């Protein structure tokens, strides 16, 4: 039997068929970076949607980690300073990668190789660090997530080739 879901203060999205979990302290820019990635993917014609913002319920299903949300926040994302926006969302997605939203002055210049985000009692996800002020976080994601290159917007049919 799988353990009960773990409630994580994060934002989860899907880009193409890839689930991405944005983590970081409160106010670090998780929602805005996730929103920017969704918008960039959609401009390139790829499917992209919100799973959950602020509260992500992570559960284990076989060998996969899944993200879902409390129904009360379905389709809602807080864009700090602008308000709460309504957007297309899906109720559950398999997670493939975690993004740690960082602030440059306080961060290491070069992070450790093969970093992973560990979710207590569930396992881990490969981890990529992205600066909260990155002008194109989807491009940064593509540069450091080579396994994503097989699909839009990360493939040759998109414009993010690295």
The CATH topology assignment is Rossmann fold
Question: Biggest β-sheet, characterized?
Answer: 6 strands, mixed
CATH H level, superfamily name: P-loop containing nucleotide triphosphate hydrolases
* N to C succession of SSEs: EEEHEEEEEEEEEH
Q: Quick check: average pLDDT? A: 87
Q: Based on Cα principal axes, name the global outline.
A: globular
Low-confidence stretches: 156-162
> Structurally, how many domains make up the residues?
1
Give the helix tally: 2
Q: Give me the Rg, rounded.
A: 15 Å
Kindly provide the name of the CATH class. Answer: Alpha Beta
Helix content percent band = 10-25%
Question: What share of the residues does DSSP label as strand, in percent?
Answer: 35-45%
Please count the beta strands (DSSP E, at least 2 residues each): 12
End-to-end distance:
41 Å
At CATH level 2, the architecture is 3-Layer(aba) Sandwich
Biggest β-sheet: strands ordered side by side in the sheet: 4-2-3-10-12-11
Structural class comes to mainly beta
Protein name: HPr kinase/phosphorylase
GO molecular function: ATP binding; phosphorelay sensor kinase activity
Domain HPr kinase/phosphorylase C-terminal: 7-89
Pfam families: Hpr_kinase_C
């Amino acid at each position: 039997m799988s353990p009960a879901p773990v409630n994580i203060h994060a934002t989860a999205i899907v880009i193409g068929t890839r689930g991405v979990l944005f983590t970081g302290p409160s106010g670090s820019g998780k929602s805005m970076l996730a929103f920017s990635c969704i918008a960039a993917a959609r401009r390139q014609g790829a499917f992209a949607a919100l799973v959950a913002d602020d509260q992500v319920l992570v559960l284990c299903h076989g060998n996969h980690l899944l993200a879902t949300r409390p129904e009360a926040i379905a389709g809602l994302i807080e864009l700090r300073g602008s308000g709460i926006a309504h957007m297309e969302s899906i109720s559950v997605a398999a997670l493939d990668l975690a993004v740690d939203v960082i602030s440059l002055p306080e961060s290491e210049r070069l992070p450790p190789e093969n970093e992973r985000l560990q979710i207590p009692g569930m396992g881990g996800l490969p981890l990529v660090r992205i600066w909260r002020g990155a002008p194109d976080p989807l491009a940064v994601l593509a540069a450091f997530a080579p396994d994503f290159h097989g699909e839009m917007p990360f493939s040759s049919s998109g414009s993010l080739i690295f």
